[in-house]
């Protein structure tokens, strides 16, 4: 897992979450706090945005449920009251990859009921259709699940999508593209996006 996941020999014997945190700190990220615990449906989060990069469907389902529960809490807390939150959208990103292919799903969250119904709800329903059963995934050795260049591509694409999303938030209108699905197939050099 060293080369494919951007770890080095100094990370051997260290929990992945701690090694990733140290890597961020080494690259001048001001603050990173590792949480070495399993994320499940009882996990509490207090975040505006979520980027998911897990390797199993069960965790994806649980993370989506937890994030939606948190968004519903936000909407309830401001219901009927003018709030800065009403003008800022939140984003859930789920990235999936294998050695020569990746997908990035983006679900925006809108607190205004008409926008939630128009944008968020169809995205959630379509996203949930992509959450197949765990036993449908072939059990591959860890080294056959990804490559470092595909991982780097998906990381840069996530950063670009998030930058576009935040630009749209700051502009108050959609001036940049934030597709529901971004998909890259490397053998064909085929990049496709899909909106709902």
Account of the 3D structure:
Residues 82-86 have low confidence and may be disordered. A five-stranded mixed sheet has the order 1-2-3-4-5, sandwiched between helices. It starts with 15 loop residues before the first helix and ends with a strand. The protein has 196 residues and is of the alpha+beta class. The chain has helices spanning 16-26, 57-77, 113-129, 148-171, and strands at 49-52, 90-98, 101-109, 181-185, 190-194. α2 (57-77) links the parallel β1 and β2 (90-98). The chain contains four helices and five strands, in the order αβαββααββ. The protein is globular.
Layout of secondary structure:
Elements: H1 16-26, E1 49-52, H2 57-77, E2 90-98, E3 101-109, H3 113-129, H4 148-171, E4 181-185, E5 190-194
Parallel strand pairs: 1-2
Antiparallel strand pairs: 2-3, 3-4, 4-5
